[in-house]
Design goal:
By secondary structure, this protein is α/β, with parallel strands linked by helices. The protein folds into 3 domains: 2-154, 3-Layer(aba) Sandwich (Rossmann fold), CATH 3.40.50; 165-403, Alpha-Beta Horseshoe (pyruvate-formate lyase- activating enzyme); 409-463, OB fold (Dihydrolipoamide Acetyltransferase, E2P), CATH 2.40.50. 35% of the residues lie in helices and 22% in strands. It contains 14 helices and 21 strands. It has a 6-stranded parallel beta sheet with strand order 3-2-4-5-6-7, sandwiched between helices. Strands 17-18-19-21-20 form a 5-stranded mixed beta barrel. Helix 9 (243-250) packs parallel to helix 10 (271-279) and helix 13 runs parallel beside helix 14 (380-403). The longest helix is centred in the C-terminal third of the chain and has 24 residues, at 380-403. The radius of gyration is 23 Å and the shape is globular. The chain starts with a strand and ends with a strand.
Length: 464
């Protein structure tokens, strides 16, 4: 593993303030970072904020007043990309008001050649574009934009090194994201991730555990291990370790804290992993295990490498071994060629498992993936009708789960206030949020909460 400073010489690189004063006529530069997409993107955004602060910038929440704007993109669905391009287009007005404004676009979307070309041709006010493999060059590229006053495009890198030592400015003081691996080797037929994030690469266990320990020493109470396929961790490392063993080691620190992880793939969800969760002191009894479809034919077309029955076997074992297990999953509705009868297979699996929550999506074709070439005869209007059926079933299940929590007490971590300093969000081990309406400010602490009311999808409670 390489340290970031090994690539940039002196990593304590600061902006050349002679250039800054000349360009902006002021000594303080304000930087704004907007992140779209998954927790991995959020983690990347936190590192960019850390680098910008190390360079001497002040991070701001106000896009209008920023001197540097970074748009960290997501490519997982067409709707997300359209929304991002709309946001980028809106920055033309700010550039016109302030010609010295530096605008950068990065992330998964910028690893696609057609999207890069679109930015080059249609968004000439964008100064810097870089991909997911270029974080180690971020500060240098930004300085080059200042110095050379020309557009810079860096993407398509095949660099699969993992760089340690980046500064991080975390959005929360309670919960911290810790990437344990990057990329994906699964090549599900609908998914763009292996093409924009690259192949699987795992961090050394020592680096992960050192980062975790420092976060706990600094008062963080919840650590979220991240990976596109987190439970395949360790497969290409020189050291003999897998994800279950990493979790066991992370479970050995002192004090009260929680470990979560996402996202898992069913083909790598071993009994050892489930046993590790069941036997741990700190690993949450919440398992996010995407199944995507309840039809074996569709699963095969998706290249998911498991069957309906094998998925249900994992769930049955997890329910037997893990006390008070909370389950969540991802589902794609309307995969190319899916019939209504096959969608019913998905619906029946949801009813059988009874997930606490679901993340549901209508299939979105991604250029460059095998599924994008498949015939797709079902109109979007029909797929939307299917999705509404699925949401109705899940809403009924979620409401029953919530209603059964009424009057019961749960250990919660109070994550943040809900805007008015009188209401706070406490999250259970099962990743369910309870709106704390009585009991005072416990932000950043664990407490026992009693559920007092259930309003729609909202749980309301008080600190006991």
């Amino acid at each position: 593993m390489l340290k970031a400073k090994d690539l940039q010489g002196d990593y304590n690189l600061i902006l050349d303030y002679a250039l800054v004063v000349k360009r902006f006529s002021k000594k303080c530069i304000y930087a704004f970072v907007k992140t779209y997409g998954c927790q991995q993107n959020v983690s990347d955004g936190e590192r960019m904020c850390g680098i910008l602060e190390r360079m001497g910038c002040i991070i701001t929440d106000c896009e209008e007043n920023a001197d540097i704007i970074i748009i960290n993109t997501c490519a997982i669905r067409e709707h997300a990309q359209n929304k991002i391009f709309g946001h980028i287009g809106s920055l033309k007005r700010l550039k016109k008001q302030n010609p010295n404004l530096v605008i950068a676009v990065c992330g998964c979307m910028t690893e696609q050649k057609n999207e890069i070309q679109k930015i080059k041709e249609s968004y000439p006010f964008v100064d810097l574009v870089f991909g997911t493999h270029s974080m180690n060059l971020f500060s240098k590229m930004l300085l080059d934009v200042f110095r050379e006053k020309k557009r810079i495009f860096v993407s398509g890198s095949k660099d699969e090194n993992i760089y340690e030592g980046f500064p991080v400015k975390r959005a929360s003081k309670v919960k911290a994201f810790v990437p344990v691996m990057y990329g994906c080797d699964n090549f599900c037929s609908y998914c763009i991730v292996p093409y924009v994030r690259g192949r699987e690469r795992s961090r050394k266990a020592e680096d992960i555990l050192d980062e975790t320990q420092k976060l706990l020493e600094n008062g963080y109470k919840e650590i979220v291990f991240l990976g596109q396929n987190v439970n395949s961790y360790g497969k290409k490392l020189d050291e003999d370790i897998d994800f279950a063993q990493l979790l066991r080691r992370a479970d050995n620190f002192g004090g009260e804290y929680r470990i979560r992880f996402m996202t898992s793939h069913p083909k790598d969800a071993t009994k050892e992993l489930i046993d590790t969760i069941a036997e741990s002191k700190h690993i949450c009894h919440n398992f996010h295990l995407p199944f995507q479809s309840g039809s074996d034919r569709i699963l095969k077309a998706m290249n998911r490498k498991y069957t309906r029955d094998s998925y249900l076997d994992i769930i049955d074992y997890a329910k037997k071994r893990i006390k008070n297990l909370s389950l969540s999953s991802d589902i794609i509705v309307g995969f190319p060629g899916e019939t209504y009868e096959e969608f019913q297979d998905t619906l029946s699996l949801v009813k059988q498992v009874r997930f606490t929550s679901l993340f549901t999506f209508i299939y979105s074709p991604r250029s460059g993936t095998p599924a994008a070439l498949l015939p797709d005869p079902v109109p979007k209007k029909e797929k939307t009708r299917w999705l509404m059926q699925l949401l109705k079933v899940q809403d009924e299940i979620s409401f029953e789960i919530h209603r059964n929590m009424l009057g019961k007490r749960f250990r919660v971590l109070v994550d943040h206030d809900l805007g008015d300093k009188s209401r706070f969000l406490g999250r259970t081990d099962g990743n369910l949020g309870i709106e704390i309406v009585e009991g005072g400010n416990f932000v950043g602490r664990f407490a026992d909460a009693e559920v007092m009311d259930v309003i729609g999808r909202t749980l309301k409670g008080k600190i006991v």
